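Ops channel
N.P.: pipeline sanity check, posting one input/output pair.
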């Protein structure tokens, strides 16, 4: 057998890129590559990139520059750029950085082994097609290696919503859902390999409408019920949802499906109707709040998380105050917030921009409010019993770390639970970004 070649993959951006990186590693496994966790001894480096904000995209060029030395030491080293920057700026990457041998967009990963062969012949390869054949079909043959207790599973990809600030519809293409049978097969395979919790992924995961075994279009709720029936699968999560696709059956599933965890990431972006309209979000602050009310009526303890953009073009002080008001009203368990970043080619890029200093100040204020809510949500767990799925050893000897059903990280000292166990834990303390507790014996 020839010595395996080494592949180093570095992943940026969202969970979908994490999932895609695993699939790329598997595809390259078929071409004789094994993964390494350092670029230093790699035969091939792949950067799986994110284009969502300017900083994310620019980081790639500085990262590539750092590989110059490695390429001098090892002229056979091949460097590839995958993901959303590859899709958006493919030819520019090739122009700006001659070190790059390969540019591959998110829909073409199944072709990587063929591309690798061409690159080995000294060719430069750029493939950012949206091919007819489906990458998921060709990426099905996965090795049976044991896995950790949690996994991502992409069920839907792409977006038709065209929010005025966002590149995703351009980098990932239109909405497409995988068929139910394929997803169930993949979930069973993951469970056989040790997975206990699956997070279903999609840029608009709740817009899922895959073909079911009966030939009908299945909703995400129906898919979740099919996965619920898999023995050995203990927990189901999904992300990211859009408020407009939060259908009645999905809300209802939060009340009746015990494997569906009480955590929901539901981005709203702004609390000002004027800004929401300019963002092309097609919902209002009030419709979002009503939706939250309906979800909480079904699952009162659900922990909510969101995404916010501050300093969107034309955002006034009053618009920003409306966002703070909405946050106060919802009371989030956690949230992600970003300064608006101008993305070339998106409609908002052409509009009057908010001053950078104003954006910074607003971001700080918003984050301070979210931090207060996050702390309060954590404090509210103290004294309660939660179920923890243990994922890995902690930093201290004898300590284990896992996640509660609310996705809080929980540390347990002197812990005899094994990785993959779910145990009841009494929460004793809330630390900055995690909880600490002890196992409750039944
Ligand atoms: N599909 C998901 C989110 C995709 S991007 C959804 O619709 O919710 C993740 C987050 O990045 C978004 O929710 C938004 O808050 C942020 N984001 C997207 N484009 C951005 C931009 N141009 N500037 C700043 N933040 C942005
Ligand atoms: Fe981007 Fe909006 Fe689509 Fe989310 S819904 S991916 S923010 S365009
Ligand atoms: Fe980034 Fe692409 Fe995900 S732009 S957030 S990696 S879909």
């Amino acid at each position: 057998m020839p010595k395996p070649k080494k592949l180093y993959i570095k992943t940026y951006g969202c969970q979908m890129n994490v999932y895609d990186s695993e699939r790329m590693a598997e595809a390259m496994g078929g071409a004789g590559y094994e993964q390494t966790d350092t670029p230093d001894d790699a035969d091939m480096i792949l950067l799986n990139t994110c284009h969502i904000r300017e900083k994310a995209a620019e980081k790639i060029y500085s990262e590539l520059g750092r590989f110059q030395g490695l390429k001098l030491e090892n002229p056979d080293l091949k460097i590839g750029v995958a993901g959303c920057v590859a899709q958006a700026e493919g030819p520019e990457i090739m122009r700006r950085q001659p070190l790059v041998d390969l540019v591959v967009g998110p829909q073409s990963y199944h072709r990587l082994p063929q591309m690798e062969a061409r690159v080995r012949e000294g060719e430069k390869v750029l493939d950012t097609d949206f091919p007819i054949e489906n990458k998921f079909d060709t990426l099905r043959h996965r090795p049976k290696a044991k896995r950790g207790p949690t996994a991502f599973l992409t069920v839907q990809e792409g977006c038709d919503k065209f929010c005025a600030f966002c590149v995703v519809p351009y980098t990932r293409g239109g909405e497409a859902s995988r068929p139910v049978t394929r997803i169930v097969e993949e979930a069973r395979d993951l469970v056989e390999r040790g997975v206990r919790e699956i997070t279903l992924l999609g840029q608009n995961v709740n817009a899922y409408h895959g073909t079911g075994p009966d030939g009908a279009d299945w909703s995400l709720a129906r898919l979740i019920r099919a996965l619920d029936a898999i023995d050995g699968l203990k927990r189901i999560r999904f992300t990211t949802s859009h408020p407009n696709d939060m259908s009645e059956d999905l809300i209802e599933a939060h009340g009746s499906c015990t494997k569906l965890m009480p955590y929901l990431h539901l981005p709203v972006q702004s609390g000002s109707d004027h800004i929401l309209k300019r963002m092309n979000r097609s919902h209002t602050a009030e419709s979002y709040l009503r939706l939250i009310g309906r979800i909480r009526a079904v699952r009162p303890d659900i922990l909510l998380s969101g995404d916010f953009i501050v300093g969107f073009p034309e955002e006034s002080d009053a618009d920003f105050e409306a966002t703070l008001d909405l946050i106060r009203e919802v009371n989030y368990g956690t949230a992600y917030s970003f300064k608006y970043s101008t993305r070339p080619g998106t409609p908002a890029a052409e509009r009057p921009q908010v001053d950078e200093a104003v954006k910074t100040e607003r971001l700080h204020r918003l984050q301070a409010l979210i931090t207060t809510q996050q702390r309060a949500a954590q404090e509210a767990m103290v004294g309660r019993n939660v179920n923890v799925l243990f994922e890995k050893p902690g930093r201290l000897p004898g300590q284990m770390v896992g996640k509660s059903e609310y996705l809080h990280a929980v540390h347990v000292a002197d812990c005899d639970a094994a990785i993959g166990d779910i145990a009841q834990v009494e929460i004793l303390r809330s630390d900055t970004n995690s909880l600490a507790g002890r196992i409750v014996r039944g």
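N.P.: looks fine end to end. The chain is about 35% helix and 25% strand.
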